[in-house]
Amino acid sequence: MPQVCPICEGANPATFARVAGYPYFCCQACDSIFIDPEVLAQIDRDEFVRTYDQTYWVAEDESARERSFGPAIARVAELFLYARKPITRFIDIASGPGYLLDALSLYLPSSKGLFWGVERFPPSTYTSHPNYRIGSLEDLEGTFDAGVCIEVIEHLTPNMLRSLAVAMATKSTPDSIFLVNTGMPPYVRNEDPGYLDPLVRGHIVSYGLRGVEHIFKPLGFDVIPLPGKDWAFLLEFLPTKRTPGTATDRIWTPHPSNRHIFHDAEMGSVLYCLGLDAARAYGSANHHDGGATKWTAPLR
Questions:
Q1: Taking 80 as the threshold, does the pLDDT of residue 299 lie above it?
Q2: Does residue 220 come out as left (phi exceeding 0), alpha (psi in the -120 to 50 range) or beta?
Q3: Is residue 1 one of the residues assigned to a domain?
């Protein structure tokens, strides 16, 4: 039994489950679920439980494409409405094959150049988008106004997530905003216990919001929940103003330039409509039916 949580240093985490022979524990202080800390230390030494080689990408390719042309593009659409500042550079962190860049090029051809993607362990075949980069976020030049990190942090040890948080802070300016899509503990407990999967999908941690705050808040990020979504949250860097209400309230007053981007000269306003509906759907449904409706998260 670990004595402290590797995420927030809370005392005496409890046993949660055993998955594929690996024990997972849960922290009462930060609500995170994590694989045996000895395994986390092993991964930090580059001794991976799940190696992200070409066999991983062969198995992942179909779901990566399906996600990019479906729920991932919906997450981008709603993020543009949450943002308080004009988005002139957008980053897909750990972009995989870069299919999300292809989807955005299809639906927003007039704004193709503002979208970037970076992937440290790319598959052998990936997008031809000119802004796709192989490497780490910190390797890129300049800063970004917004971005997504979709189905990534559940693969990362706490030390890896801390390094990513530092890189994100370095590449942000005040009011930069990011949407992180990952299965959080309420989702794992209530909807998909199989989300924890060290050997096939490589999911070693389910980060609770308090755990995320422990890592990101000291670097200047506000951690903002999204109503009805226990598989996504926002990170806003050095916000210049804080207003009452939820993130969803922002969608009615998006920055004019961001709204303009989503009224593409060729493709029209399909992503603007998608963003409005994606932002409202989960929280609104749970509000009106008293929580009776179960919404399954669009995760792999």
A1: no
A2: left
A3: no
CA distances from 21 to 49, 118, 189, 199 (A): 12, 33, 19, 10
The answer to whether residue 284 is domain-embedded is yes
Beta-carbon contacts of residue 64 (< 8 Å; ≥ 6 apart): 96, 97, 99, 300
The span from the CA of 212 to the CA of 164, in Å, is 12
- How far, CA to CA in Å, does 236 sit from each of 116, 174, 218? 19, 8, 13
- Three-state DSSP class for residue 17: strand
Residue 11 lies in a domain: no
pLDDT band at 283 (very low <50, low <70, confident <90, very high): low
Cα separation, 117 vs 96, in Å, equals 9
User: Per-residue confidence at 55, pLDDT binned at 50, 70, 90?
Assistant: confident
pLDDT of residue 281: 87
How many domains does the structure of the chain reveal? 1
| Sheet containing 146-150, strands listed edge to edge, beginning at the edge strand earlier in sequence | 132-134, 115-119, 90-93, 146-150, 177-181, 229-237, 221-226
The residue range of the domain holding 139 is 52-288
pLDDT digits (tens, 9 = 90+) for 85-104: 999 999 999 999 999 999 99
CA Rg value for the chain: 19
85-94, 207-216, 253-262, 278-287: which range is least confident on average? 278-287
| CATH number of the domain within which 206 lies | 3.40.50.150
pLDDT higher than threshold 80 for residue 284: no
Q: Tell me how many degrees the CA angle 275-182-90 measures, rounded to the nearest 5.
A: 50
Which one-letter amino acid corresponds to residue 170?
Answer: T
* 3-class secondary structure, 91: strand
